[in-house]
Amino acid sequence: MSDIVVLRLGHRPERDSRVTTHVGLTSRVLGATGMLLTSDDKSVRESIDRVVKAWGGDFWVKTGISYRSEIKKWKESGGIVVHLTMYGINMPDCIDEIRERFRTESVMIVVGAEKVPGDVYELSDYNVAIGNQPHSEIAALALFLDRLQEGRTLTGDFIGGELKIVPSEHGKTVLKK
């Protein structure tokens, strides 16, 4: 399998900071290696960096990027671009093909906030719908990442970090390293 990077479009710092942080946290826990953010909101990066320091892993966040430039570079390097949108092809109709390509090609997942620029639909290799109704971009991302990797990331361990949860049926157990 190859790398997964999430490109977050349309982040509005005064309104979307918490949602964008959750896009990053969901990406991290479900197997992505990093997140590109079109906004220059460093607070999102700092928040996710604190989580990585505490809980481990190598997830990174890059802010202030140009989506067109990043998508073009990604495709030139041989990666594929998947745009999550309610207007796309239903995920069950295309996930097998995307998963097959993911064996040898890295995947950039584009997740919007406000109105997504029209050229994103053309620049993307796949426009994928998690149902053709309005929905949460966090939920769409989680479902797509899980289906792409067939649940393999749900029990993974993160290297490094200061804290680790010990799964238990009742109660909370956190180990400090």
Characterization of this structure:
By secondary structure, the chain is of the alpha/beta class. It has 6 helices and 8 strands; from the N terminus they run E-H-E-H-E-H-E-H-E-H-E-H-E-E. It has helices spanning 13-29, 42-55, 67-76, 95-102, 119-123, 137-148; strands at residues 4-8, 34-37, 60-63, 80-90, 107-111, 126-129, 163-165, 174-176. The strands form 2 sheets. The chain has a 6-stranded parallel sheet with strand order 3-2-1-5-4-6. The chain has a two-stranded antiparallel sheet with strand order 7-8. The chain is globular and about 45 Å long. Keywords: Cytoplasm, Methyltransferase, S-adenosyl-L-methionine, Transferase, tRNA processing. Homodimer.
Topology:
Layout: E1 4-8, H1 13-29, E2 34-37, H2 42-55, E3 60-63, H3 67-76, E4 80-90, H4 95-102, E5 107-111, H5 119-123, E6 126-129, H6 137-148, E7 163-165, E8 174-176
Parallel strand pairs: 1-2, 1-5, 2-3, 4-5, 4-6
Antiparallel strand pairs: 7-8
Helix pairs in contact: 1-2, 1-6
Full CATH superfamily name: SPOUT methyltransferase, trefoil knot domain
How are the strands of the biggest sheet laid out side by side? 3-2-1-5-4-6
Helix content: 25-40%
Which fold does the CATH topology refer to?
Answer: Alpha/beta knot
Computed Rg = 16 Å
Order of helices and strands: EHEHEHEHEHEHEE
* Strand elements, count: 8
Spatial separation of the terminal alpha carbons: 30 Å
Beta-strand proportion: 15-25%
Mean pLDDT: 92
Number of helices: 6
Detail the poorly predicted runs. Answer: none
CATH class: Alpha Beta
> Which structural category fits the helices and strands?
alpha/beta
